[in-house]
Amino acid sequence: MCRLLGVVSKAPSRLTDTLSDMLEQFTELSGEHADGWGIAAWHDGGLTVVKEAVPAWSSQRYGEATETVTDAAITHIRLATPGLATEPNNTHPFSTGTLAFAHNGFFNPPDAIDELIDPDLLADAGGGTDSERYFLRVLSLLRTGDPVSAIAAAAADIRSRAEFASLNCLLLTKEALYAYTEEDPSSEVSQRRGPEFFRIRYLIEPGRVVVASTGFADSTPASSDRSIRWDVLPHRHVLEIRRSNLRVSVHRFPE
């Protein structure tokens, strides 16, 4: 299992500034989620991805990467599924060209959707994780569809073919940041961790929109009178945050 943090801001700024109230607490979670970290960010017109198979809290490169000047980024810290190697090729975000993808959860068996992945994409798989297969299925669907539909369809494919704990993910493109959430509440992980563990929240403010998994910052729901007000992304919904204007849309898909 892993933790996710994504942000789109009105203007490029260092991540340490854009996420100054959250990044330290998020990084502290790498004491448990200690099997790697990765940051994908738009910088100087291109998508840069930096990642290592070491704990974020102990990595000098992680500290350097959080100083990246960007208006859109995703950050991932990994707690590896038992049996899956802790190595760079299995570390999120996975990326190609102008796309980056990070997953929080697992499905089994990892090859459950291999026959649905375009052969050329599957042949280029760098690691052995279910998460990379999830990304490759999204890439296959993107060849004929849009990101919102591709994420939802990939999740439906996994749901129909595999056991899973969570299909939570972030997808960063040139145009937008997308988030999807779905869990199986009967899975061993959900039963052990509780109903909050796989929740995805988002925060809309004048200069930024943040989307994140739980475990850090203020988890206060939108109905509270507290100053930080997170909204909860319902299961089987796709959140879309446009880079051009911070417009937020929530797309629902049928049960």
UniProtKB/TrEMBL annotation:
PANTHER family: GLUTAMINE AMIDOTRANSFERASE, GLUTAMINE AMIDOTRANSFERASE YAFJ-RELATED
Location of the Glutamine amidotransferase type-2 domain: 2-255
Protein name: Class II glutamine amidotransferase
PROSITE patterns the record matches: GATASE_TYPE_2
Keywords: Glutamine amidotransferase
Gene3D superfamilies registered for this protein in UniProt: Glutamine Phosphoribosylpyrophosphate, subunit 1, domain 1
Pfam families (UniProt xref): GATase_4 (PF13230)
SUPFAM superfamilies associated with the record: N-terminal nucleophile aminohydrolases (Ntn hydrolases) (SSF56235)
